[in-house]
Design goal:
- The protein is α/β, with parallel strands linked by helices.
- The protein contains ten helices and ten strands.
- It has two domains: 1-37 and 85-125 and 174-254, TPP-binding domain (Rossmann fold, 3-Layer(aba) Sandwich); 39-82 and 128-169, SIR2/SIRT2 'Small Domain' (2-Layer Sandwich), CATH 3.30.1600.
- It has helices at 6-19, 53-56, 59-64, 66-81, 87-97, 112-116, 142-149, 178-190, 209-215, 242-253; strands spanning 2-3, 23-27, 104-106, 121-123, 126-132, 139-141, 166-169, 193-197, 219-223, 236-238.
- The chain has a seven-stranded parallel beta sheet with strand order 1-10-9-8-2-3-4, sandwiched between helices. It has a three-stranded antiparallel beta sheet with strand order 6-5-7.
- The protein starts with a strand and ends with a helix.
- 40% of the residues are buried.
């Protein structure tokens, strides 16, 4: 692995992207931090710093007490609704538009990659874009759910079933969507380069995707602050601010 300064590392990553024929990007919470969305575990600022995720974000919590569950998720939805993509999201969309990456696999549910213009997007943890009715399968857009929440102190309910709606995101205790993970695994297996951006690569099964690419003979590049289990396996690692690092890569591409 080459742990590089931004300038040298950016040139290296730009070269890898130019040489690759089937590059793919995997992103985590760190890519959305510049948009004002806290990650999960950073001391002092992480989302789980003051709450127990097993109490507020577990499928059993939703089933036992949807009103209490939505006290947390209603605030989170309200916070995420007005967030906008940052330059890291836009730079990745630009790489796709140039044909340098085949798409983006993301662990994030904030929909910012889609808003930024990424077209081939696999959201392996779901998205806040919709909520679903567990009873009838109805799907409701975020704005409709926020409208319902503005008129109730409890969980938003399906207008047809009077059943509490569930965010269309993967909660603790739930399996990842089978189709999304199959698509992600396929992209990773075919990739000759995987670029991991803003992820500590510690949460499985998504954290296993870089190993899929490496096992298939592909290369790995990391754009993330802090250590990951793949540091020694990476061809290059840029460990500064994700926006600055990706801007430098775009500059190096010209």
């Amino acid at each position: 692995m080459s742990l590089s300064t931004t300038d040298t590392g950016a040139r290296t990553l730009a070269r890898l992207l130019t040489e690759a024929e089937r590059a793919v990007v995997l992103t985590g919470a760190g890519v959305s931090v510049p948009s004002g969305i806290p990650d999960f575990r950073t001391p002092g600022t992480g989302l789980w710093e003051n709450v127990d995720p097993m109490e507020v974000a577990h499928i059993d919590s939703f089933r036992r007490g949807p009103d209490r569950f939505w006290q947390f998720y209603g605030e989170r939805f309200a916070m995420l609704r007005d967030k906008r993509p940052n330059d890291a999201h836009r730079d990745l969309a630009e790489l796709e538009a140039r044909g340098l990456i085949r798409g983006v696999i993301t662990q994030n549910v904030d929909r910012l990659h889609r808003v930024a213009g990424t077209e081939n997007l696999i959201e392996v943890h779901g998205s806040i874009e919709h909520c679903i009715c567990p009873e009838c399968g109805g799907r409701f857009e975020l704005e409709k759910v926020m409208e319902i929440l503005s008129h109730t102190a409890g969980a938003p309910e399906c207008p047809a079933c009077i059943t509490p709606l569930k965010p269309d995101v993967v909660l603790f205790g739930e399996l990842l969507p089978e189709a999304a993970m199959a698509d992600a695994h396929s992209l990773a297996a075919e990739a000759d380069l995987m670029v991991c951006v803003g992820s500590s690569l510690e949460v499985y099964p998504v954290a296993g995707l870089p190993r899929v690419t490496l096992s298939s003979g592909g290369k790995l590049a990391l754009v993330t602050a802090g250590p990951t289990p793949y540091d020694e396996a990476a061809t290059v690692k840029l460990d500064g601010d994700v926006v600055e690092e990706l801007e430098a890569v775009l500059d190096a591409l010209g």
